[in-house]
Amino acid sequence: MSDQSNPFEAMMKQAQEMAKAMPGMDAFSPKVFEAMMGTMPKDMMEMMFGNGLNAGGLDARTRLLLTLAGLTMQGAQNDVAIRQTVRHAIEAGATRQHVTETIAQMSVFAGLPAMTRATELANQAMDEKDNDMKGDNMKGGEA
After folding, report:
1. Which residues of 60-91 are buried (b: 16+ CB within 10 A; e: fewer)?
2. pLDDT digit string (tens) for 130-143?
3. Domains of the chain (ranges plus CATH)?
4. Theoretical Cys-Cys bridge with 125: which of 18, 20, 86, 134, CB 3.0 to 4.6 Å?
5. DSSP code of 27?
6. Are 72 and 54 in contact (CB under 8 A)?
7. Which of 101, 104, 114, 121 shows the shortest CA–CA distance to 73?
8. Residue 9's pLDDT band (boundaries 50, 70, 90)?
9. DSSP state letter for 41
10. What are phi and psi for residue 123, nearest 5 degrees?
């Protein structure tokens, strides 16, 4: 047996050192990146994933609720993807009840821990949206 280190470990260490050397990477935050992504307008979502290209097919809201169901089925492990999908589903016309029922339906298949985690993440996204709307209404009322 040789005394050489694991090549994968060496590669990962090198990648970490390169990332540390990049300007601004020490301040990188997934939350900040998520906030920069924004939400696609409903008309654009309809054109790209809805009836715009597939007349008579699933609308964007339904497709996004199916995506949310799939993310929940995977164990609700991708926080950013779940919150972003919820934001887009709401923009596409889904209600809080639609989101909640979609996640609840998956509890039968994915289990209660996945449902609970997905619900927490969805509530974060919906609460942020509600707070943004309240802030916009207050700004409009002051003018």
Report:
1. bbbbbbebbbebbeeebeebebbbbbbbbbbb
2. 777 777 666 665 44
3. 41-128 (1.20.1290.10)
4. 86
5. G
6. no
7. 114
8. confident
9. -
10. -65, -35
Output the pTM of the full model.
Answer: 0.68
Please write the tens of the pLDDT for every residue from 97-133: 999 999 999 999 999 999 999 999 999 999 987 777 7
pLDDT of residue 98: 98
The Cα 85–Cα 66 span in angstroms is: 10
CB atoms near residue 39 (< 10 Å): 15
Collapsing DSSP to helix, strand or coil, 81 comes out as helix
Q: Please report where in the chains the tokens 């449902």 appear, as a residue.
A: 115
Q: Cβ distance 43 to 79 under 8 Å?
A: no
